[in-house]
Amino acid sequence: xxxxxxxxxxxxxxxxxxxxxxxxxxxxxxxxxxxxxxxxxxxxxxxxxxxxxxxxxxxxxxxxxxxxxxxxxxxxxxxxxxxxxxxxxxxxxxxxxxxxxxxxxxxxxxxxxxxxxxxxxxxxxxxxxxxxxxxxxxxxxxxxxxxxxxxxxxxxxxxxxxxxxxxxxxxxxxxxxxxxxxxxxxxxxxxxxxxxxxxxxxxxxxxxxxxxxxxxxxxxxxxxxxxxxxxxxxxxxxxxxxxxxxxxxxxxxxxxxxxxx
Length: 261
What we know:
Blueprint: E1 2-4, H1 11-20, E2 25-27, H2 35-47, E3 52-54, H3 62-71, E4 79-85, H4 104-107, H5 110-120, E5 124-131, E6 145-151, E7 156-162, E8 172-178, E9 181-186, E10 190-195, E11 198-202, H6 209-221, H7 230-249, E12 253-254
Parallel strand pairs: 1-2, 2-3, 4-7
Antiparallel strand pairs: 4-8, 5-6, 5-12, 6-7, 8-9, 9-10, 10-11
Helix pairs in contact: 1-2, 5-7
């Protein structure tokens, strides 16, 4: 098994080389930083069908698991609001540099595209994104976004990703609405479920880092595939590219992973 935790733009090539070496692969997000890299991985995976996992940890947190169970089988699609108070990262930081990090849409927002997929149990089909416009040279416009993602089952994911707030506000807030119920996660430190006119507090915390590695290693020991499907991690990656396409065109973008498979 190989764990890859190098700068983002190296991931696609290193994943492909590790698969060719007949290794199980755990790569930190993102899977790839451009479409050519994603295509390379898909083609390599067809030839060397070894388990491949991306470090989308939040779906493995105990509170995410609890809300997934609560909202599964409601008979209705979900509307999910995710607000990320991400904080400012200077333009000179490696994450922002195209040759190293590829930017925060690809390198960070992928976490929440994956989380939308986890909660809905459905695939993204279309995305529309709009960025803040500013003359302030310190601001990276792509770090202040409103994104709407449509899913095959009719669910809608709204992602507000912001770098222009104050860090005293907790970073991550998630709300799930469906079938007369609401689930809320406060920065993965506390959570509630609202239903039947009552609020239930969930005494669970943590972003799932430990659980994701344990789940991956358990599957490898048992000879199983990675805990997140290959199709899903490719869809998450492709969706981040489509977010950028939407920003550049001011138009909604269709998400069709079958064109790559």
